[in-house]
Amino acid sequence: PILSAIRRMKSRKEDHIILQLGRIFWEFILAAWRLLFAIIPPHQIAHGWISFICSLAFITGIAYVVTRLTRLIGCVT
């Protein structure tokens, strides 16, 4: 019983470390995403048309990058 409890504690610590590393990786990816879309101007300027056009341009750019990546790895688009 004591050995199994120790094994469970080690397993929980390892799971915690893996979860923390996953969280750090995910935050790194999201930081780039947030910085990219942070430069879109607020919707109060020009009744939102500038932010609408910028958003469409960014979405188009992301779709282009995803399409290029899928072609690079051989996925069918």
From TrEMBL:
This is Uncharacterized protein. The chain crosses the membrane at residues 21-40, 46-66. GO terms for biological process: metal ion transport. One of its GO terms (cellular component) is membrane. It comes from Nymphaea colorata. Keywords: Ion transport, Membrane, Transmembrane, Transmembrane helix, Transport. The lineage of its organism: Eukaryota, Viridiplantae, Streptophyta, Embryophyta, Tracheophyta. Coiled coil: none annotated.
